[in-house]
Design a protein that fits this description.
DGR2-like_dom; glycoprotein; 15% helix; 3 domains; binds calcium ion; alpha+beta; Jelly Rolls; six-stranded antiparallel sheet
Protein backbone atom coordinates (compact mmCIF):
# COMPACT_ATOMS: atom_id res chain seq x y z
CA UNK A 1 0.00 0.00 0.00
CA UNK A 2 2.73 2.44 1.01
CA UNK A 3 4.67 1.62 -2.12
CA UNK A 4 1.73 2.22 -4.44
CA UNK A 5 0.94 5.55 -2.82
CA UNK A 6 4.58 6.56 -3.27
CA UNK A 7 4.33 5.68 -6.95
CA UNK A 8 1.12 7.68 -7.19
CA UNK A 9 2.86 10.64 -5.57
CA UNK A 10 5.76 10.37 -8.01
CA UNK A 11 3.36 10.15 -10.91
CA UNK A 12 1.48 13.17 -9.64
CA UNK A 13 4.70 15.18 -9.34
CA UNK A 14 5.73 14.07 -12.81
CA UNK A 15 2.39 15.15 -14.24
CA UNK A 16 2.70 18.45 -12.43
CA UNK A 17 6.16 19.16 -13.77
CA UNK A 18 6.02 17.55 -17.19
CA UNK A 19 3.52 19.94 -18.82
CA UNK A 20 5.83 22.82 -17.90
CA UNK A 21 8.66 21.20 -19.83
CA UNK A 22 6.46 20.43 -22.79
CA UNK A 23 5.00 23.96 -22.97
CA UNK A 24 8.45 25.54 -23.25
CA UNK A 25 8.53 25.10 -27.01
CA UNK A 26 4.88 25.94 -27.65
CA UNK A 27 4.08 28.78 -29.97
CA UNK A 28 3.09 31.59 -27.64
CA UNK A 29 -0.15 33.53 -27.84
CA UNK A 30 0.29 36.53 -30.11
CA UNK A 31 2.08 37.15 -33.39
CA UNK A 32 3.52 34.01 -35.02
CA UNK A 33 7.15 34.11 -36.22
CA UNK A 34 7.40 37.05 -38.62
CA UNK A 35 3.60 37.18 -38.59
CA UNK A 36 3.74 40.86 -39.54
CA UNK A 37 6.21 40.29 -42.43
CA UNK A 38 8.44 43.09 -41.19
CA UNK A 39 11.55 40.86 -40.90
CA UNK A 40 14.14 41.69 -43.54
CA UNK A 41 14.78 38.94 -46.11
CA UNK A 42 18.47 37.99 -46.44
CA UNK A 43 18.49 39.36 -49.98
CA UNK A 44 16.69 42.57 -48.97
CA UNK A 45 13.11 43.71 -49.49
CA UNK A 46 11.94 43.57 -53.13
CA UNK A 47 11.75 47.38 -53.32
CA UNK A 48 15.51 47.62 -52.71
CA UNK A 49 16.56 44.48 -54.58
CA UNK A 50 19.08 44.94 -57.35
CA UNK A 51 18.44 41.69 -59.13
CA UNK A 52 15.04 40.17 -59.84
CA UNK A 53 14.36 36.86 -58.23
CA UNK A 54 12.08 35.21 -55.76
CA UNK A 55 12.07 36.97 -52.41
CA UNK A 56 12.54 34.80 -49.43
CA UNK A 57 10.15 35.56 -46.58
CA UNK A 58 11.77 34.81 -43.21
CA UNK A 59 10.01 32.09 -41.17
CA UNK A 60 7.56 31.27 -44.00
CA UNK A 61 7.47 28.67 -46.74
CA UNK A 62 5.96 29.87 -49.99
CA UNK A 63 4.37 28.29 -53.05
CA UNK A 64 3.45 30.10 -56.23
CA UNK A 65 3.54 33.86 -56.64
CA UNK A 66 3.92 35.34 -53.16
CA UNK A 67 5.08 38.94 -52.98
CA UNK A 68 6.19 41.14 -50.14
CA UNK A 69 4.44 44.45 -50.62
CA UNK A 70 5.11 47.82 -49.01
CA UNK A 71 2.69 50.51 -47.93
CA UNK A 72 2.61 53.34 -50.43
CA UNK A 73 3.31 50.92 -53.29
CA UNK A 74 1.07 51.10 -56.34
CA UNK A 75 -0.01 48.40 -58.74
CA UNK A 76 0.16 49.01 -62.49
CA UNK A 77 -3.38 50.37 -62.56
CA UNK A 78 -2.28 53.13 -60.18
CA UNK A 79 -4.26 51.80 -57.25
CA UNK A 80 -2.54 52.19 -53.91
CA UNK A 81 -1.91 48.92 -52.13
CA UNK A 82 -3.43 48.56 -48.70
CA UNK A 83 -1.06 47.30 -46.03
CA UNK A 84 -3.00 46.49 -42.87
CA UNK A 85 -0.20 46.87 -40.32
CA UNK A 86 3.33 48.26 -40.24
CA UNK A 87 4.94 48.81 -43.61
CA UNK A 88 5.08 45.30 -45.10
CA UNK A 89 2.55 42.60 -45.93
CA UNK A 90 2.27 39.73 -48.42
CA UNK A 91 0.13 39.36 -51.48
CA UNK A 92 -0.89 35.92 -52.65
CA UNK A 93 -1.23 35.44 -56.40
CA UNK A 94 -3.44 32.83 -58.06
CA UNK A 95 -3.13 29.53 -56.27
CA UNK A 96 -0.23 30.83 -54.18
CA UNK A 97 0.25 30.02 -50.52
CA UNK A 98 2.36 30.74 -47.47
CA UNK A 99 2.74 28.40 -44.55
CA UNK A 100 4.66 27.87 -41.35
CA UNK A 101 4.68 25.19 -38.73
CA UNK A 102 3.34 26.08 -35.31
CA UNK A 103 3.88 24.08 -32.15
CA UNK A 104 0.62 23.56 -30.34
CA UNK A 105 -1.00 21.35 -27.73
CA UNK A 106 -2.65 18.35 -29.29
CA UNK A 107 -6.41 18.33 -28.60
CA UNK A 108 -6.60 22.02 -27.76
CA UNK A 109 -8.54 24.60 -29.75
CA UNK A 110 -6.77 27.60 -31.22
CA UNK A 111 -7.91 30.82 -32.82
CA UNK A 112 -5.92 32.36 -35.65
CA UNK A 113 -6.29 36.10 -36.10
CA UNK A 114 -5.07 37.74 -39.31
CA UNK A 115 -5.67 40.90 -41.28
CA UNK A 116 -6.70 40.73 -44.89
CA UNK A 117 -7.44 43.14 -47.71
CA UNK A 118 -8.59 42.49 -51.22
CA UNK A 119 -6.79 44.17 -54.07
CA UNK A 120 -9.33 43.92 -56.85
CA UNK A 121 -13.08 44.32 -57.00
CA UNK A 122 -13.58 40.70 -58.00
CA UNK A 123 -14.67 38.05 -55.61
CA UNK A 124 -11.67 37.28 -53.49
CA UNK A 125 -11.45 34.71 -50.82
CA UNK A 126 -8.74 33.25 -48.71
CA UNK A 127 -8.41 29.71 -47.54
CA UNK A 128 -6.92 29.26 -44.10
CA UNK A 129 -6.11 25.74 -43.11
CA UNK A 130 -4.54 23.70 -40.41
CA UNK A 131 -4.96 20.33 -42.13
CA UNK A 132 -7.36 18.62 -42.01
CA UNK A 133 -9.31 21.68 -40.82
CA UNK A 134 -9.84 24.23 -43.54
CA UNK A 135 -11.94 27.35 -43.82
CA UNK A 136 -12.52 29.82 -46.60
CA UNK A 137 -12.93 33.43 -45.63
CA UNK A 138 -14.90 35.62 -47.98
CA UNK A 139 -13.19 38.95 -48.57
CA UNK A 140 -15.94 40.23 -50.82
CA UNK A 141 -17.78 42.27 -48.20
CA UNK A 142 -15.95 45.40 -47.14
CA UNK A 143 -16.87 45.87 -43.51
CA UNK A 144 -15.09 49.16 -43.17
CA UNK A 145 -13.86 52.04 -45.24
CA UNK A 146 -10.17 51.36 -44.57
CA UNK A 147 -10.30 48.45 -46.99
CA UNK A 148 -9.00 45.75 -44.67
CA UNK A 149 -10.14 43.91 -41.60
CA UNK A 150 -8.85 41.52 -38.98
CA UNK A 151 -10.55 38.10 -39.10
CA UNK A 152 -10.42 35.07 -36.86
CA UNK A 153 -10.96 31.39 -37.50
CA UNK A 154 -10.30 28.44 -35.23
CA UNK A 155 -9.09 24.87 -35.33
CA UNK A 156 -8.56 21.94 -33.05
CA UNK A 157 -4.97 20.72 -33.02
CA UNK A 158 -4.74 17.09 -34.06
CA UNK A 159 -0.96 16.99 -33.72
CA UNK A 160 1.67 18.79 -31.66
CA UNK A 161 3.15 20.43 -34.72
CA UNK A 162 0.75 21.67 -37.37
CA UNK A 163 1.18 23.67 -40.55
CA UNK A 164 -0.69 26.97 -40.68
CA UNK A 165 -1.48 27.60 -44.34
CA UNK A 166 -2.87 30.68 -46.10
CA UNK A 167 -3.83 30.09 -49.68
CA UNK A 168 -5.44 32.12 -52.42
CA UNK A 169 -7.74 29.70 -54.18
CA UNK A 170 -8.83 32.29 -56.72
CA UNK A 171 -7.90 32.21 -60.39
CA UNK A 172 -8.08 35.76 -61.58
CA UNK A 173 -7.23 37.20 -64.96
CA UNK A 174 -5.15 40.02 -63.55
CA UNK A 175 -1.99 38.58 -61.99
CA UNK A 176 -1.73 41.67 -59.81
CA UNK A 177 -4.94 40.80 -58.02
CA UNK A 178 -5.03 38.56 -54.99
CA UNK A 179 -5.53 39.09 -51.28
CA UNK A 180 -3.02 40.87 -49.07
CA UNK A 181 -2.51 39.41 -45.64
CA UNK A 182 -0.73 40.67 -42.55
CA UNK A 183 -0.51 40.46 -38.75
CA UNK A 184 -1.02 36.76 -38.19
CA UNK A 185 -1.47 35.77 -34.56
CA UNK A 186 -2.47 32.65 -32.71
CA UNK A 187 -4.16 32.10 -29.36
CA UNK A 188 -5.01 28.99 -27.42
CA UNK A 189 -8.68 29.11 -26.50
CA UNK A 190 -9.99 28.34 -23.08
CA UNK A 191 -13.63 27.54 -22.51
CA UNK A 192 -14.60 29.20 -19.25
CA UNK A 193 -16.34 27.36 -16.45
CA UNK A 194 -20.06 27.73 -16.44
CA UNK A 195 -21.44 29.62 -13.46
CA UNK A 196 -24.21 27.86 -11.53
CA UNK A 197 -26.82 30.57 -11.99
CA UNK A 198 -26.33 31.06 -15.74
CA UNK A 199 -26.73 28.46 -18.49
CA UNK A 200 -24.78 30.52 -21.04
CA UNK A 201 -21.15 29.59 -21.70
CA UNK A 202 -18.79 32.56 -22.21
CA UNK A 203 -21.75 34.79 -21.42
CA UNK A 204 -19.77 38.03 -21.44
CA UNK A 205 -17.68 37.17 -24.53
CA UNK A 206 -14.50 37.66 -22.50
CA UNK A 207 -12.94 34.51 -23.99
CA UNK A 208 -12.12 34.84 -27.65
CA UNK A 209 -9.44 35.28 -30.31
CA UNK A 210 -6.30 37.37 -30.14
CA UNK A 211 -6.79 41.10 -30.57
CA UNK A 212 -4.01 43.55 -31.28
CA UNK A 213 -3.89 46.45 -28.82
CA UNK A 214 -3.19 48.97 -31.58
CA UNK A 215 -5.88 47.80 -34.00
CA UNK A 216 -9.16 49.67 -33.67
CA UNK A 217 -11.25 47.61 -36.10
CA UNK A 218 -12.20 44.75 -33.80
CA UNK A 219 -11.98 41.21 -35.21
CA UNK A 220 -14.49 39.79 -37.67
CA UNK A 221 -15.80 36.34 -36.87
CA UNK A 222 -16.99 34.64 -40.04
CA UNK A 223 -19.56 31.85 -40.18
CA UNK A 224 -18.71 29.05 -37.81
CA UNK A 225 -21.28 26.35 -37.37
CA UNK A 226 -19.25 24.21 -35.04
CA UNK A 227 -19.72 25.17 -31.41
CA UNK A 228 -16.90 22.84 -30.34
CA UNK A 229 -14.38 24.69 -32.46
CA UNK A 230 -15.36 28.33 -32.45
CA UNK A 231 -13.06 31.36 -32.11
CA UNK A 232 -15.65 32.51 -29.58
CA UNK A 233 -15.94 29.55 -27.18
CA UNK A 234 -19.55 28.45 -26.67
CA UNK A 235 -20.92 30.58 -29.49
CA UNK A 236 -21.65 29.95 -33.14
CA UNK A 237 -21.78 32.47 -35.93
CA UNK A 238 -24.60 31.41 -38.21
CA UNK A 239 -25.65 32.55 -41.68
CA UNK A 240 -23.47 34.07 -44.35
CA UNK A 241 -21.81 37.15 -42.89
CA UNK A 242 -19.55 37.96 -40.00
CA UNK A 243 -20.08 39.56 -36.61
CA UNK A 244 -17.47 41.86 -35.07
CA UNK A 245 -15.67 41.01 -31.86
CA UNK A 246 -14.91 44.30 -30.12
CA UNK A 247 -12.66 45.42 -27.26
CA UNK A 248 -13.07 48.12 -24.63
CA UNK A 249 -9.88 49.87 -25.78
CA UNK A 250 -11.63 51.07 -28.92
CA UNK A 251 -15.37 50.57 -28.39
CA UNK A 252 -18.00 51.07 -25.72
CA UNK A 253 -18.30 47.62 -24.15
CA UNK A 254 -21.16 47.13 -21.65
CA UNK A 255 -19.43 44.54 -19.44
CA UNK A 256 -15.78 43.54 -19.03
CA UNK A 257 -13.37 44.04 -21.93
CA UNK A 258 -15.04 42.29 -24.85
CA UNK A 259 -18.42 42.14 -26.54
CA UNK A 260 -19.98 41.40 -29.91
CA UNK A 261 -21.23 43.98 -32.41
CA UNK A 262 -23.83 42.67 -34.83
CA UNK A 263 -22.72 44.30 -38.07
CA UNK A 264 -24.43 42.22 -40.75
CA UNK A 265 -28.15 42.68 -40.22
CA UNK A 266 -30.09 39.44 -40.51
CA UNK A 267 -27.10 37.78 -42.16
CA UNK A 268 -24.93 37.78 -39.06
CA UNK A 269 -26.41 35.65 -36.30
CA UNK A 270 -24.72 34.55 -33.10
CA UNK A 271 -26.26 31.65 -31.26
CA UNK A 272 -25.70 29.15 -28.50
CA UNK A 273 -27.42 25.96 -27.44
CA UNK A 274 -27.86 26.27 -23.69
CA UNK A 275 -28.70 23.52 -21.26
CA UNK A 276 -32.25 23.75 -19.98
CA UNK A 277 -34.77 21.57 -18.21
CA UNK A 278 -37.95 20.88 -20.14
CA UNK A 279 -41.07 22.73 -18.96
CA UNK A 280 -39.09 25.06 -16.71
CA UNK A 281 -39.56 28.79 -17.04
CA UNK A 282 -36.48 30.80 -17.91
CA UNK A 283 -35.41 34.35 -18.52
CA UNK A 284 -32.92 35.35 -21.16
CA UNK A 285 -31.41 38.70 -20.23
CA UNK A 286 -28.69 40.60 -22.03
CA UNK A 287 -27.13 44.01 -22.43
CA UNK A 288 -28.05 45.81 -25.62
CA UNK A 289 -25.69 48.64 -26.39
CA UNK A 290 -24.14 51.14 -28.78
CA UNK A 291 -20.46 50.55 -29.58
CA UNK A 292 -19.67 54.26 -29.51
CA UNK A 293 -18.44 54.02 -33.09
CA UNK A 294 -20.66 56.69 -34.65
CA UNK A 295 -23.07 54.00 -35.76
CA UNK A 296 -26.22 55.55 -37.20
CA UNK A 297 -29.35 54.75 -35.22
CA UNK A 298 -31.90 53.18 -35.03
CA UNK A 299 -30.24 50.10 -33.58
CA UNK A 300 -32.26 47.01 -32.76
CA UNK A 301 -31.77 43.31 -32.16
CA UNK A 302 -34.00 40.32 -32.62
CA UNK A 303 -33.49 37.98 -29.68
CA UNK A 304 -34.52 34.32 -29.83
CA UNK A 305 -34.97 31.93 -26.92
CA UNK A 306 -36.57 28.62 -27.76
CA UNK A 307 -39.84 29.41 -29.50
CA UNK A 308 -39.83 33.04 -28.38
CA UNK A 309 -38.60 35.87 -30.58
CA UNK A 310 -38.58 39.46 -29.52
CA UNK A 311 -37.44 42.68 -31.08
CA UNK A 312 -35.61 45.27 -28.91
CA UNK A 313 -34.84 48.82 -29.95
CA UNK A 314 -31.88 50.52 -28.40
CA UNK A 315 -33.25 53.44 -26.40
CA UNK A 316 -30.44 54.62 -24.17
CA UNK A 317 -30.63 57.11 -21.39
CA UNK A 318 -28.13 59.94 -21.38
CA UNK A 319 -25.61 58.40 -18.97
CA UNK A 320 -25.30 54.89 -20.33
CA UNK A 321 -24.30 53.22 -23.60
CA UNK A 322 -26.43 50.16 -22.98
CA UNK A 323 -29.68 48.88 -21.52
CA UNK A 324 -30.93 45.56 -20.16
CA UNK A 325 -33.32 43.50 -22.25
CA UNK A 326 -35.06 40.26 -21.38
CA UNK A 327 -37.16 37.51 -22.92
CA UNK A 328 -39.13 34.95 -20.92
CA UNK A 329 -39.52 31.45 -22.26
CA UNK A 330 -40.47 27.93 -21.29
CA UNK A 331 -37.88 25.34 -22.18
CA UNK A 332 -39.18 22.54 -24.39
CA UNK A 333 -36.09 20.35 -24.37
CA UNK A 334 -32.78 19.74 -22.64
CA UNK A 335 -31.06 22.18 -24.96
CA UNK A 336 -32.53 25.50 -26.01
CA UNK A 337 -31.21 27.72 -28.76
CA UNK A 338 -30.68 31.38 -27.99
CA UNK A 339 -29.72 33.70 -30.84
CA UNK A 340 -29.32 37.33 -31.82
CA UNK A 341 -29.22 39.30 -35.03
CA UNK A 342 -29.42 42.96 -35.93
CA UNK A 343 -32.80 44.07 -37.25
CA UNK A 344 -31.26 46.87 -39.33
CA UNK A 345 -28.29 47.21 -41.66
CA UNK A 346 -26.40 50.09 -40.08
CA UNK A 347 -23.46 52.16 -41.25
CA UNK A 348 -21.33 54.79 -39.56
CA UNK A 349 -22.47 58.39 -39.79
CA UNK A 350 -18.96 59.67 -40.57
CA UNK A 351 -18.13 57.60 -43.66
CA UNK A 352 -21.59 56.21 -44.52
CA UNK A 353 -20.10 52.89 -45.54
CA UNK A 354 -18.36 51.12 -42.64
CA UNK A 355 -20.71 48.46 -41.28
CA UNK A 356 -21.77 48.65 -37.65
CA UNK A 357 -24.69 47.67 -35.46
CA UNK A 358 -26.00 46.94 -31.98
CA UNK A 359 -23.76 45.47 -29.27
CA UNK A 360 -24.73 42.40 -27.27
CA UNK A 361 -23.01 41.46 -24.00
CA UNK A 362 -23.53 39.69 -20.66
CA UNK A 363 -26.05 37.15 -21.91
CA UNK A 364 -27.75 35.19 -19.16
CA UNK A 365 -30.25 32.38 -19.09
CA UNK A 366 -31.59 31.53 -15.66
CA UNK A 367 -34.59 29.92 -14.03
CA UNK A 368 -37.04 32.70 -13.59
CA UNK A 369 -37.82 32.80 -9.86
CA UNK A 370 -40.44 35.51 -10.10
CA UNK A 371 -42.27 33.53 -12.72
CA UNK A 372 -41.70 30.40 -10.69
CA UNK A 373 -43.60 31.99 -7.81
CA UNK A 374 -46.41 33.02 -10.12
CA UNK A 375 -46.42 29.57 -11.60
CA UNK A 376 -46.61 27.82 -8.24
CA UNK A 377 -49.49 30.11 -7.27
CA UNK A 378 -51.21 29.17 -10.49
CA UNK A 379 -50.53 25.50 -9.84
CA UNK A 380 -52.12 25.73 -6.39
CA UNK A 381 -55.17 27.40 -7.94
CA UNK A 382 -55.39 24.77 -10.64
CA UNK A 383 -55.08 21.97 -8.12
CA UNK A 384 -58.01 23.42 -6.22
CA UNK A 385 -59.99 23.62 -9.42
CA UNK A 386 -58.95 20.10 -10.27
CA UNK A 387 -60.52 18.84 -7.07
CA UNK A 388 -63.75 20.71 -7.58
CA UNK A 389 -64.33 20.43 -11.32
CA UNK A 390 -62.36 17.56 -12.71
CA UNK A 391 -63.90 17.36 -16.26
CA UNK A 392 -63.37 21.10 -16.83
CA UNK A 393 -59.72 20.78 -15.83
CA UNK A 394 -59.13 18.12 -18.44
CA UNK A 395 -60.68 20.39 -21.04
CA UNK A 396 -58.31 23.24 -20.00
CA UNK A 397 -55.38 20.92 -20.24
CA UNK A 398 -56.25 19.91 -23.80
CA UNK A 399 -56.69 23.53 -24.75
CA UNK A 400 -53.32 24.33 -23.27
CA UNK A 401 -51.73 21.61 -25.36
CA UNK A 402 -53.21 22.86 -28.59
CA UNK A 403 -52.03 26.38 -27.72
CA UNK A 404 -48.56 25.03 -27.15
CA UNK A 405 -48.61 23.45 -30.58
CA UNK A 406 -49.58 26.76 -32.13
CA UNK A 407 -46.68 28.62 -30.54
CA UNK A 408 -43.99 26.00 -31.16
CA1 LIG B 1 -18.15 41.44 -22.06
Amino acid sequence: MAKSSAIKRCLFLFMLIFPHFSTLALTEDGLVANGDFEARPSNGFPSEAIADGPTEIPSWRTKGRVELVSSGEKVSGGMLLIVPGGSKAVRLGNDAEISQEVTVEKGSTYAVTFSAARTCAQLESLNVSVPPASQSVDLQTLYNVQGWDPYSISFEAEEDKVPLVFRNTGMEDDPECGPIIDDIAIKKLITPDQPKDNAVVNSGFEFGPWMFQNVSLGVLLPTNLDEETSPLPGWMVESTRAVRYIDSNHYAVPEGKRAVELVSGKEGIISQMVETRPDKLYSLTFFLGHAGDKCKEPLAVMAFAGDQAQNFHYTPDSNSTFQVASVNFTAKAERTRIAFYSVYYNTRTDDMSSLCGPVVDDVRVWVSTERKKQESRREVKEKRRFHHRRPKRRHDHEQGQSQNKKTS
